[in-house]
Amino acid sequence: MKLRQLLFLGMVLVPLAFTWPAMAEENVGKDGHSAAQGSQDPGKGHSKEKKMQHQGGGHKMHLFTEDWHNTLTDAQKIEVDTMHLHLMKETAPIKAEIKRKKIELAVLATEDRADAKAIKEKIDEILSLKGQKMQKRFAHIVEMRGILSAEQRLSYDMLIVGRAAQGKK
Fold first, then answer.
1. What is the DSSP letter of 19?
2. 98 exposure class (CB count in 10 Å sphere: 0-12, 13-18, 19+)
3. How far apart are CA 102 and CA 71, in angstroms?
4. What does the pLDDT look like over 77-96, one tens digit per residue?
5. Fewer CB within 10 A of the terminal residue: the chain, N end or C end?
């Protein structure tokens, strides 16, 4: 009975694992936000005001402080771009490996006699890779905070905590 449940769960979750990233694929602009967020239908989570404000690079949560992006010096801009490039180079192979492992998981789950142990091991491999990616991302956040002034950190921290509270990156 448990094998049947696991197979059913695999049949439901595996297609979701392939379609979810495609739906959430981000086109990140120079302000660090996805184009998908800016083009979201106002009826689906963003008011017209917030949609227009977001497309302009502003954040509703910055009530009194200026958005940290807008206050960077030229030297900070170069350093931020360098750090972002470094992060992308570190995480791109991990992301590719996660995609490959998810395909392997789908193949395992769709075999006539699916091996529950092999499926669990593949899931553990994927989770380990996701953990590595998160460690690199949060090390990057700490590094970013290190180059910002106190005022810039306030705005940056609001963004990081706000995204986490919303379940976003």
1. H
2. buried
3. 40
4. 999 999 999 999 999 999 99
5. N
Residue 118 to residue 133: CA distance in whole angstroms: 23
Whole-angstrom distance, CA of residue 56 vs CA of residue 31: 9
DSSP one-letter code for 34: B
Query: Which stretches within 42-115 are classed as H helix?
Result: 48-55, 74-109
Residue pair 147/76 in contact by the 8 Å Cβ criterion: yes
Set out the domains of the chain in order of their start, with CATH numbers: 2-165 (1.20.120.1490)
Better pLDDT: 65 or 168: 168
Q: What is the pLDDT of residues 136-166, one digit of tens each?
A: 999 999 999 999 999 999 999 999 999 999 9
Q: Which helix (H) or strand (E) holds 152?
A: helix 150-165
